[in-house]
Design goal:
binds magnesium ion, binds adenosine-5'-triphosphate, alpha/beta, 8-stranded mixed β-sheet, Rossmann fold, about 300 residues
Length: about 300
Protein backbone atom coordinates (compact mmCIF):
# COMPACT_ATOMS: atom_id res chain seq x y z
CA UNK A 1 0.00 0.00 0.00
CA UNK A 2 2.77 2.42 0.99
CA UNK A 3 4.77 1.50 -2.10
CA UNK A 4 1.78 2.24 -4.27
CA UNK A 5 1.33 5.66 -2.65
CA UNK A 6 5.01 6.43 -3.06
CA UNK A 7 4.87 5.51 -6.74
CA UNK A 8 1.84 7.72 -7.25
CA UNK A 9 3.57 10.59 -5.51
CA UNK A 10 6.58 10.20 -7.79
CA UNK A 11 4.30 10.03 -10.80
CA UNK A 12 2.50 13.24 -9.79
CA UNK A 13 5.61 15.13 -8.77
CA UNK A 14 7.68 13.91 -11.67
CA UNK A 15 5.20 15.23 -14.15
CA UNK A 16 4.69 18.58 -12.46
CA UNK A 17 7.84 20.07 -11.02
CA UNK A 18 8.01 23.67 -12.21
CA UNK A 19 8.00 22.65 -15.81
CA UNK A 20 6.89 25.01 -18.54
CA UNK A 21 3.66 23.86 -20.01
CA UNK A 22 3.62 22.27 -23.43
CA UNK A 23 1.09 23.68 -25.85
CA UNK A 24 -2.10 21.68 -25.83
CA UNK A 25 -4.62 21.43 -28.56
CA UNK A 26 -8.31 21.60 -27.83
CA UNK A 27 -11.57 21.87 -29.76
CA UNK A 28 -12.02 24.99 -31.84
CA UNK A 29 -14.87 26.25 -29.62
CA UNK A 30 -14.39 28.75 -26.79
CA UNK A 31 -13.42 27.38 -23.40
CA UNK A 32 -16.12 26.83 -20.81
CA UNK A 33 -15.39 29.03 -17.80
CA UNK A 34 -16.70 27.56 -14.55
CA UNK A 35 -16.27 29.24 -11.16
CA UNK A 36 -16.42 27.01 -8.08
CA UNK A 37 -17.60 28.71 -4.93
CA UNK A 38 -19.49 28.02 -1.70
CA UNK A 39 -20.45 30.67 0.80
CA UNK A 40 -19.12 28.81 3.82
CA UNK A 41 -15.41 28.00 3.91
CA UNK A 42 -13.88 24.56 4.24
CA UNK A 43 -16.73 22.68 2.53
CA UNK A 44 -14.42 21.00 0.01
CA UNK A 45 -14.22 23.41 -2.96
CA UNK A 46 -10.53 22.98 -3.68
CA UNK A 47 -10.55 19.20 -3.47
CA UNK A 48 -13.66 19.08 -5.60
CA UNK A 49 -12.13 21.43 -8.20
CA UNK A 50 -8.92 19.42 -8.54
CA UNK A 51 -10.66 16.05 -8.73
CA UNK A 52 -13.34 17.32 -11.10
CA UNK A 53 -10.52 18.57 -13.34
CA UNK A 54 -8.95 15.09 -13.32
CA UNK A 55 -12.31 13.41 -13.98
CA UNK A 56 -12.92 15.73 -16.95
CA UNK A 57 -9.40 15.03 -18.22
CA UNK A 58 -10.14 11.29 -18.08
CA UNK A 59 -13.14 12.02 -20.30
CA UNK A 60 -10.84 13.61 -22.88
CA UNK A 61 -11.26 17.27 -21.92
CA UNK A 62 -8.37 19.72 -21.83
CA UNK A 63 -8.71 21.33 -18.43
CA UNK A 64 -7.04 24.32 -16.83
CA UNK A 65 -7.42 25.21 -13.15
CA UNK A 66 -7.01 28.82 -12.03
CA UNK A 67 -6.42 29.31 -8.32
CA UNK A 68 -8.28 32.53 -7.50
CA UNK A 69 -8.23 32.08 -3.74
CA UNK A 70 -6.41 35.33 -3.11
CA UNK A 71 -3.82 34.88 -0.40
CA UNK A 72 -4.90 31.44 0.84
CA UNK A 73 -4.77 29.45 -2.40
CA UNK A 74 -3.88 25.78 -1.96
CA UNK A 75 -4.72 24.15 -5.29
CA UNK A 76 -0.99 23.44 -5.59
CA UNK A 77 -0.99 21.36 -2.41
CA UNK A 78 -4.00 19.29 -3.44
CA UNK A 79 -2.74 18.88 -6.99
CA UNK A 80 0.86 18.19 -5.98
CA UNK A 81 2.00 20.83 -8.43
CA UNK A 82 3.46 24.29 -7.86
CA UNK A 83 3.36 27.42 -10.01
CA UNK A 84 6.31 29.76 -10.10
CA UNK A 85 4.53 32.62 -11.86
CA UNK A 86 1.09 34.17 -11.77
CA UNK A 87 -1.13 36.15 -14.12
CA UNK A 88 0.55 39.49 -13.44
CA UNK A 89 3.84 38.09 -14.75
CA UNK A 90 2.24 38.21 -18.18
CA UNK A 91 2.80 41.91 -17.95
CA UNK A 92 5.59 42.60 -15.51
CA UNK A 93 7.90 39.77 -16.40
CA UNK A 94 7.14 39.93 -20.11
CA UNK A 95 6.25 36.23 -20.12
CA UNK A 96 3.97 34.52 -22.58
CA UNK A 97 0.87 32.60 -21.54
CA UNK A 98 2.62 29.25 -21.85
CA UNK A 99 5.32 30.42 -19.40
CA UNK A 100 2.85 30.94 -16.54
CA UNK A 101 1.00 27.62 -16.99
CA UNK A 102 2.26 24.56 -15.11
CA UNK A 103 1.63 20.98 -16.16
CA UNK A 104 -0.30 18.79 -13.74
CA UNK A 105 -1.24 15.09 -13.76
CA UNK A 106 -3.30 13.61 -16.65
CA UNK A 107 -2.43 16.61 -18.82
CA UNK A 108 -4.35 19.15 -16.74
CA UNK A 109 -2.89 22.63 -16.50
CA UNK A 110 -2.61 24.92 -13.54
CA UNK A 111 -2.33 28.70 -13.30
CA UNK A 112 -2.02 30.74 -10.15
CA UNK A 113 -4.08 33.92 -9.98
CA UNK A 114 -2.61 34.90 -6.65
CA UNK A 115 -2.33 38.58 -5.85
CA UNK A 116 -1.74 39.07 -9.57
CA UNK A 117 -5.43 38.86 -10.29
CA UNK A 118 -6.14 41.35 -7.54
CA UNK A 119 -3.69 43.86 -8.98
CA UNK A 120 -5.31 43.74 -12.39
CA UNK A 121 -7.74 46.39 -11.13
CA UNK A 122 -4.87 48.91 -10.96
CA UNK A 123 -3.60 48.53 -14.50
CA UNK A 124 -4.03 51.16 -17.19
CA UNK A 125 -6.03 50.59 -20.38
CA UNK A 126 -3.00 49.63 -22.48
CA UNK A 127 -1.76 47.12 -19.90
CA UNK A 128 -5.23 45.63 -19.53
CA UNK A 129 -5.64 45.16 -23.26
CA UNK A 130 -2.24 43.52 -23.49
CA UNK A 131 -2.97 41.10 -20.64
CA UNK A 132 -6.48 40.23 -21.86
CA UNK A 133 -5.16 39.56 -25.35
CA UNK A 134 -2.55 37.18 -23.95
CA UNK A 135 -5.01 35.40 -21.67
CA UNK A 136 -7.55 35.09 -24.48
CA UNK A 137 -5.24 32.50 -26.06
CA UNK A 138 -6.49 30.11 -23.38
CA UNK A 139 -9.50 29.47 -25.61
CA UNK A 140 -7.11 27.62 -27.93
CA UNK A 141 -5.53 25.66 -25.09
CA UNK A 142 -8.43 24.51 -22.92
CA UNK A 143 -11.92 23.09 -23.27
CA UNK A 144 -12.83 23.79 -19.65
CA UNK A 145 -11.40 26.34 -17.20
CA UNK A 146 -12.18 25.70 -13.53
CA UNK A 147 -11.69 28.64 -11.18
CA UNK A 148 -11.33 27.81 -7.48
CA UNK A 149 -12.36 30.72 -5.26
CA UNK A 150 -11.78 31.44 -1.59
CA UNK A 151 -14.35 31.26 1.18
CA UNK A 152 -16.97 33.90 1.88
CA UNK A 153 -19.29 36.13 -0.10
CA UNK A 154 -17.00 39.12 -0.56
CA UNK A 155 -16.55 41.28 -3.63
CA UNK A 156 -13.48 39.50 -4.97
CA UNK A 157 -15.25 36.12 -4.88
CA UNK A 158 -18.45 37.60 -6.34
CA UNK A 159 -16.53 39.08 -9.28
CA UNK A 160 -15.46 35.59 -10.36
CA UNK A 161 -18.99 34.30 -9.84
CA UNK A 162 -20.64 37.06 -11.87
CA UNK A 163 -18.14 36.93 -14.74
CA UNK A 164 -18.23 33.15 -15.38
CA UNK A 165 -20.44 31.26 -17.87
CA UNK A 166 -21.26 28.75 -15.16
CA UNK A 167 -20.96 28.56 -11.39
CA UNK A 168 -20.83 25.46 -9.22
CA UNK A 169 -21.87 26.12 -5.63
CA UNK A 170 -20.46 23.50 -3.25
CA UNK A 171 -22.04 22.93 0.16
CA UNK A 172 -22.21 20.23 2.77
CA UNK A 173 -25.61 19.16 4.18
CA UNK A 174 -24.92 21.03 7.43
CA UNK A 175 -27.37 23.86 8.22
CA UNK A 176 -24.62 26.53 8.46
CA UNK A 177 -23.21 25.56 5.05
CA UNK A 178 -26.70 25.42 3.47
CA UNK A 179 -27.53 28.87 4.90
CA UNK A 180 -24.30 30.32 3.47
CA UNK A 181 -24.87 28.64 0.09
CA UNK A 182 -28.32 30.25 0.01
CA UNK A 183 -26.67 33.57 0.99
CA UNK A 184 -24.41 33.22 -2.05
CA UNK A 185 -27.45 32.61 -4.29
CA UNK A 186 -29.22 35.62 -2.81
CA UNK A 187 -26.25 37.91 -3.43
CA UNK A 188 -26.02 36.55 -6.97
CA UNK A 189 -29.73 37.30 -7.54
CA UNK A 190 -29.44 40.80 -5.99
CA UNK A 191 -26.55 41.59 -8.32
CA UNK A 192 -28.58 40.37 -11.33
CA UNK A 193 -26.16 37.54 -12.06
CA UNK A 194 -26.76 35.72 -15.32
CA UNK A 195 -24.36 32.75 -15.06
CA UNK A 196 -25.86 29.25 -15.04
CA UNK A 197 -25.93 28.03 -11.43
CA UNK A 198 -25.26 24.42 -10.45
CA UNK A 199 -25.16 22.75 -7.07
CA UNK A 200 -23.01 20.01 -5.52
CA UNK A 201 -23.63 18.60 -2.04
CA UNK A 202 -20.34 17.38 -0.55
CA UNK A 203 -19.61 15.12 2.45
CA UNK A 204 -22.89 13.23 2.28
CA UNK A 205 -23.26 10.14 4.48
CA UNK A 206 -26.27 8.68 2.64
CA UNK A 207 -27.60 9.38 -0.85
CA UNK A 208 -30.95 10.46 0.65
CA UNK A 209 -29.22 13.16 2.69
CA UNK A 210 -27.72 14.60 -0.51
CA UNK A 211 -31.07 14.55 -2.30
CA UNK A 212 -32.87 16.30 0.59
CA UNK A 213 -30.24 19.06 0.84
CA UNK A 214 -30.23 19.63 -2.93
CA UNK A 215 -34.04 19.70 -3.03
CA UNK A 216 -34.23 22.20 -0.20
CA UNK A 217 -31.80 24.59 -1.87
CA UNK A 218 -33.08 24.32 -5.44
CA UNK A 219 -36.70 24.81 -4.32
CA UNK A 220 -35.91 27.76 -2.00
CA UNK A 221 -33.82 29.40 -4.70
CA UNK A 222 -36.62 29.17 -7.26
CA UNK A 223 -39.41 30.12 -4.87
CA UNK A 224 -37.83 33.04 -3.02
CA UNK A 225 -35.22 34.31 -5.49
CA UNK A 226 -36.75 33.26 -8.82
CA UNK A 227 -33.42 31.62 -9.54
CA UNK A 228 -33.23 28.25 -11.28
CA UNK A 229 -30.31 26.16 -10.04
CA UNK A 230 -29.70 22.63 -11.22
CA UNK A 231 -28.28 19.90 -9.04
CA UNK A 232 -25.21 18.06 -10.33
CA UNK A 233 -25.43 15.51 -7.53
CA UNK A 234 -23.53 14.76 -4.36
CA UNK A 235 -20.16 13.47 -3.15
CA UNK A 236 -19.91 10.98 -0.30
CA UNK A 237 -18.06 11.67 2.93
CA UNK A 238 -14.95 9.57 2.36
CA UNK A 239 -12.01 8.94 4.68
CA UNK A 240 -9.91 8.17 1.59
CA UNK A 241 -10.19 11.81 0.60
CA UNK A 242 -8.63 12.81 3.90
CA UNK A 243 -5.85 10.23 3.34
CA UNK A 244 -5.25 11.61 -0.16
CA UNK A 245 -5.02 15.18 1.19
CA UNK A 246 -2.42 14.08 3.74
CA UNK A 247 -0.37 12.35 1.05
CA UNK A 248 -0.73 15.33 -1.29
CA UNK A 249 -1.92 13.05 -4.05
CA UNK A 250 -5.22 13.92 -5.72
CA UNK A 251 -8.01 11.54 -4.69
CA UNK A 252 -8.76 10.41 -8.24
CA UNK A 253 -5.20 9.16 -8.66
CA UNK A 254 -4.67 7.79 -5.16
CA UNK A 255 -8.09 6.08 -4.86
CA UNK A 256 -9.58 5.59 -8.32
CA UNK A 257 -12.31 3.24 -7.11
CA UNK A 258 -13.43 4.85 -3.89
CA UNK A 259 -17.02 6.10 -3.38
CA UNK A 260 -16.25 9.83 -3.61
CA UNK A 261 -14.19 9.35 -6.79
CA UNK A 262 -17.15 7.65 -8.45
CA UNK A 263 -19.45 10.52 -7.40
CA UNK A 264 -17.08 13.11 -8.89
CA UNK A 265 -16.81 11.11 -12.11
CA UNK A 266 -20.61 11.06 -12.39
CA UNK A 267 -20.69 14.82 -11.88
CA UNK A 268 -18.07 15.26 -14.63
CA UNK A 269 -20.25 13.18 -16.96
CA UNK A 270 -23.31 15.29 -16.13
CA UNK A 271 -21.38 18.49 -16.78
CA UNK A 272 -20.41 17.28 -20.24
CA UNK A 273 -23.97 16.29 -21.11
CA UNK A 274 -25.19 19.76 -20.08
CA UNK A 275 -22.45 21.26 -22.22
CA UNK A 276 -24.21 20.50 -25.49
CA UNK A 277 -26.86 23.17 -24.87
CA UNK A 278 -24.76 25.82 -23.13
CA UNK A 279 -23.42 28.99 -24.72
CA UNK A 280 -19.72 29.47 -24.09
CA UNK A 281 -18.59 33.10 -24.13
CA UNK A 282 -14.95 32.19 -23.70
CA UNK A 283 -11.97 33.57 -21.87
CA UNK A 284 -11.79 37.03 -23.44
CA UNK A 285 -15.39 37.88 -22.50
CA UNK A 286 -14.81 36.40 -19.02
CA UNK A 287 -11.72 38.50 -18.32
CA UNK A 288 -13.26 41.66 -19.76
CA UNK A 289 -16.29 41.18 -17.49
CA UNK A 290 -14.03 40.41 -14.52
CA UNK A 291 -11.94 43.52 -15.04
CA UNK A 292 -15.02 45.72 -15.42
CA UNK A 293 -16.38 44.33 -12.13
CA UNK A 294 -13.05 45.01 -10.42
CA UNK A 295 -13.07 48.74 -11.30
N1 LIG B 1 -15.96 14.30 0.49
C1 LIG B 1 -15.19 14.48 1.57
N2 LIG B 1 -15.03 13.50 2.48
C2 LIG B 1 -14.26 13.67 3.57
N3 LIG B 1 -13.60 14.81 3.84
C3 LIG B 1 -13.70 15.83 2.98
C4 LIG B 1 -14.50 15.73 1.79
N4 LIG B 1 -14.40 16.92 1.13
C5 LIG B 1 -13.59 17.70 1.87
N5 LIG B 1 -13.17 17.08 2.98
C6 LIG B 1 -12.30 17.59 4.06
O1 LIG B 1 -12.44 19.00 4.11
C7 LIG B 1 -11.15 19.61 4.06
C8 LIG B 1 -11.26 20.95 3.40
O2 LIG B 1 -11.42 20.77 2.01
P1 LIG B 1 -11.03 21.93 0.97
O3 LIG B 1 -9.74 22.55 1.29
O4 LIG B 1 -11.22 21.36 -0.39
O5 LIG B 1 -12.21 22.98 1.30
P2 LIG B 1 -12.38 24.45 0.71
O6 LIG B 1 -13.84 24.69 0.58
O7 LIG B 1 -11.55 24.64 -0.50
O8 LIG B 1 -11.78 25.33 1.90
P3 LIG B 1 -11.49 26.93 1.83
O9 LIG B 1 -12.84 27.59 1.95
O10 LIG B 1 -10.63 27.18 3.03
O11 LIG B 1 -10.83 27.21 0.54
C9 LIG B 1 -10.27 18.59 3.33
O12 LIG B 1 -8.94 18.73 3.68
C10 LIG B 1 -10.82 17.28 3.84
O13 LIG B 1 -10.26 16.98 5.10
MG1 LIG C 1 -10.08 26.07 -0.97
Amino acid sequence: MWDQAENLRKMVQGSTIKKRSSVIKANAANARVITITSGKGGVGKTNFTVNLALALAKLGQKVLIIDADLGMGNVDLVLGCSARYSILDLLEGGFSLVDIITDGPLGIKFMSGGSGIYNLANLNELQLTSIVNKIALLDDLADVILIDTGAGINKSVMNFVLAADEVIIVTTPEPAAITDAYGMMKTFANQSGSSALRLVINRVIEAEEGKIAADKLTKASLKFLGLPISSLGFVYEDSNLIKAVKKQIPLLLAFPNTSSTRCIEQIANRLLVRNSTEKKEGVKVFFNKLLRLMQ
